[in-house]
Structure formats: C-alpha cells, structure tokens
Hints:
alpha+beta
Amino acid sequence: MEDASSRPHHIEYALIPVQEALVVSIRNTTWASREEIADMLSDSGENVSTSPVYRCLVSNGVNRKPKEARQAYAKFKEYTPGYIHIDVTCMPRINGRRLYLFVAIDRATRMMFYFIYEEKSVKTQPTFWNGRDSFFRSFSI
C-alpha cells in the first residue's frame, strides 16, 4: 500500500488565458508593477488580486526586469536642488478601501513630501500641489 500524493492535480488560477496574455503584454511593454497591472484588470470590471498576477508573471518569466534593462537605470544623474520628481502610486487595500500615495521628491537633496488620499482625481491635485510648493519653499528649494 502506498500513500497518494496530496498535491492538487490541477491548480485553478484566477486568471483566464486572455487575462494572462494581457498581463504578459502589459509587463513587457510598460514594466508596470503587479499592483498596477492588477488595478488595470480590476478597472475593466474583473476583481483581480496581485497574487494571480504574480504567479502569471513568474510562470511566463517576466517577474524581473532583464539584466540589461536594470543596468541602464543603475546610475542616477546628478541634479541641482529644485528638480522635483512627482509620483502617484496605489497602496494596498486597507479595510477594503483603496488609498493613493502622492509623493514629491527633490532629486538632489532627497527631501520628500507625501500625502495619502482616498481618491486619485482632479479634486485632490490642487491640495497636493499647494502643499508641495509650500513645503519645498520653506526649505528654499
């Protein structure tokens, strides 16, 4: 008598083949993060978490940037104070709510201003811009 394997014979992933092809295509063209890709799929009406997106990226070998692409961005250019990098990123869901992180970073001094909003819209933009301006001006940047 022999024990049978307890591993599943067929693992059901949450992504259908069309979604998998879309995930791989998005990743190869934009190198978007798995959170951003999951959001793109969720915006189309599907409720997709980051786990199946990550499994899809790994199984298709696109979970890491190619070495050449990583080396191209390895060195930072020198900047004078006042060159502000602005980014908006989607945070993980907290208590079922999606939050958005708005960030402004001075490339020379690495000083950072950030604000967290519940929505990413035209209404939140002026508040962020005004706060960013006053923050960096207070440091003469």
